[in-house]
Amino acid sequence: MKSLWNDQDAAKYKTDLALRVYTSRLLGQNPSLVLHGGGNTSVKIRQDNIVGETEEILYVKGSGWDLATIEEGGFSGVRIPHLLKLAQLRSLSDSQMVNELKTQMIRSNAPSPSVETILHAILPYKYVDHTHADAVVTITNTAERRQRIKEIYGDRIVIIPYIMPGFDLARLCVQEFEKQKGNNTIGMVLMNHGIFSFGNTAKESYERMIELVTQAEDYLKQHQAWHIPQKAVNTPDTLLGETLAQLRYQVSVAAGFPVILSLQQTEKTLSFAQREDINIISQQGPATPDHVIRTKRTPLVGRDVQGYVKVYETYFKTNLAQAKDNKTMVDPAPRVIIDPELGMCAIGKNAKAAGIVADIYNHTIDIIQRGTLLGGYQALPSQDIFDVEYWELEQAKLAKGGQTPPFTGEVALVTGAASGIGKACVASLLKRGAAVVGLDINESITDLHKGTDFCGLVCDLTDETAIKQALEMAVRRFGGVDMVILNAGIFPASSPISALSTEQWRRIMNINLDANLVFMREVHPFLKMAPKGGRIVVIGSKNVPAPGPGAAAYSASKAALNQLTRVAALEWGKDKIRINSIHPNGVFDTGIWTDEVLETRAKNYGLTIEEYKTNNVLKVEVTSHDVAELAASMCDRLFEKTTAAQVPLDGGNERVI
After folding, report:
1. Three-state SS for 78?
2. What is residue 98's three-state secondary structure?
3. For a Cys-Cys bond, which of 116, 288, 348, 625 suits 354, CB 3.0-4.6 Å?
4. By percentage, how much of the chain surpasses pLDDT 90?
5. Full domain range(s) for residue 327
6. Among this protein's residues, is 249 annotated catalytic?
7. What is the percentage of the chain residues whose pLDDT exceeds 70?
8. d(Cα 156, Cα 146) in Å, to the nearest integer?
């Protein structure tokens, strides 16, 4: 651990709450301390309310905020006197506790306070920091956990036996803190959960956290449990696309909805997956119980998804018998797959969720292996994990439900995605919740979007090998392909047939027709495994039903592609793949329509530029966004019983009509 405190940076933060933000972000920058919303921080402040009364307020991290990026608005201000009274109650359900916290908030639009708010309130220190430090969690996941923590920290730490977060934990901390605290106390360890540090200043509390975690790391090093020996592994140089797509399909069926499956094939994950004791050490449970919401209690080792489902159902039924009230079973599909050939697969309802799973389990791999070196990794009993997975508050969220975007968990692939219609299609699909792979020969495709749900790949679609490689990379990233927008193509300069060279003809056919044939053929096996059925939308042209002079090669290539689409619809219907076409006309916000070209074309027709853009029956302009929205809709339920349709999008073209 290294302290990131910087006096010059800290001087910019003028208030107690601002300094709370500063050190919270320092903690959040280190993933071995907190991950994806984990951890909590707070500060106690005396301030005047609107009627001039001085109140004691606890500012505690709000639900949904991440320490790495938290702002002042991410802290919920809660009145301390009421919190201290709540801590004295003999019992309080978690839903009642949440309600009580909300009634004592000083700002109505603040996020919901952390479920550990009462715990922060009862600690008699101005600043309180709480992390899930890997080193500490490793030590508390061993058989001799209490003895080891005592050996490391002596009387500097109060030790709290494991109890799940919420009101009961706060009450236990009140009791244990009074028993154990002394003049040297600077922190608290919650067994199998994390570590607290306290201080009268933000710097003191933060640097005590760094010091305490460093002690735990040093202890692991002293006991030869820090360096993890990795066995030599050879990363398999084989195509895994169809294997991953089939695995994703099985997991999606088990879950009852499409999932994103992200391959994490590294030396670390392969070495872990190929351990001889993997079936023992990986099945003990998560590093800390709250990870169960993301990763399930255990990963699937191997690829027997149905076997995992049966084991999960048994786990649910066994522990339900000990539960205080009835529970609704969540989906029984795995969230982590450990396999000697694949390494690790992380699974989530969307790309962000899968990424969080990957991050958490990458840290869990280290914790498990270090705990094993320290005498044996030993997680909490399954009943404790079950209690968190089926926590009252989590069950309330499940019952509440809520709408998710229609393409959540699905993967879309767009060709010619760097600009124009393709770029707009990417945006429309992302808006609907899909993970999107954009292909383009233009290198700018890699930076088109920054989110975890987009992958931009440079690909020359006239190169069969490049297509196969792009599909392999797409499936390794997201697990499969559900939707394809075939948009890539070229519109050459006008040329009469008498002047059309064979070379130009073949070039246009190669890009507009042949490349699409190859792409359809290569993507077909993946679309067959789409959980909701595969979908292809072909961006055709008005020139299919109404060709124009000077565009022989373009018109013929698009017409041939249209015919190919119709044949594919006939052949692939049995595979639950539907294929439809859009025939746009006059989409002027694309690269081929420069201001100069527009002006020239408009003059040829004796029109202004605006008149030329709306030269159709409805007198409207058709934009890339319009085409993209129709393409996305064709992939949605509105068109789920339609295939081989050809839909004009041209504002009404008299020649087409």
Report:
1. strand
2. helix
3. 348
4. 88
5. 241-400
6. no
7. 99
8. 14
The pLDDT of residue 398 is 59
- Number of CB atoms found within 10 A of residue 322's CB: 9
- DSSP codes, 591-633: TT--HHHHHHHHHHTT--HHHHHT-STT---B-HHHHHHHHHH
The position carrying tokens 């639900």 is: 63
pTM, two decimals, is: 0.94
Is residue 442 domain-shared with residue 563, that is, in the same domain?
Answer: yes
Instruction: Give the per-residue pLDDT at 320.
Output: 93
Instruction: Say which range, 463-477, 517-531, 541-555, has the weakest mean pLDDT.
Output: 541-555
In a domain, 143, yes or no: yes
Q: Are residues 605 and 556 in the same domain?
A: no
Q: What is the mean pLDDT of residues 482-501?
A: 93
Residue 167 lies in a domain: yes
Locate all alpha helices (DSSP H) within 390-542, ordered by sequence: 392-400, 420-431, 464-478, 502-509, 515-527
Domain membership of residue 1 (yes or no) is no
Residue 234: band (very low, low, confident or very high) from pLDDT cuts 50, 70, 90: confident
Q: Which residues of 526-558 are buried (b: 16+ CB within 10 A; e: fewer)?
A: bbbbbbbebbbbbbbbbbbbbbeebbbbbbbbb
Instruction: Answer yes or no: do 211 and 194 share one domain.
Output: yes
Residue 287 CA, distance from chain mean position: 20
Other Cβ atoms within 10 Å of 341 Cβ, number: 15
* Tokens (6 digits) for 33: 């301390």
CA dihedral 370, 373, 376, 377 (to 10 degrees): 10
Closest CA to 156 of 73, 113, 97, 214: 214
Give domain status of residue 657, yes or no: no
- Judge contact between 440 and 646, C-beta under 8 A: no
Pairing state between β 194-199 and 127-131: antiparallel
CATH number for the domain harbouring residue 272: 3.40.225
Catalytic residue among 219, 390, 554, 612: 554
Helix (H) or strand (E) holding 254: helix 241-255
Residue 72, pLDDT > 90, answer yes
User: Within 13 Å, how many C-alpha atoms sit on residue 69's CB side?
Assistant: 6
The number of distinct structural domains making up the chain is: 4
Element at 104 (helix H, strand E): none
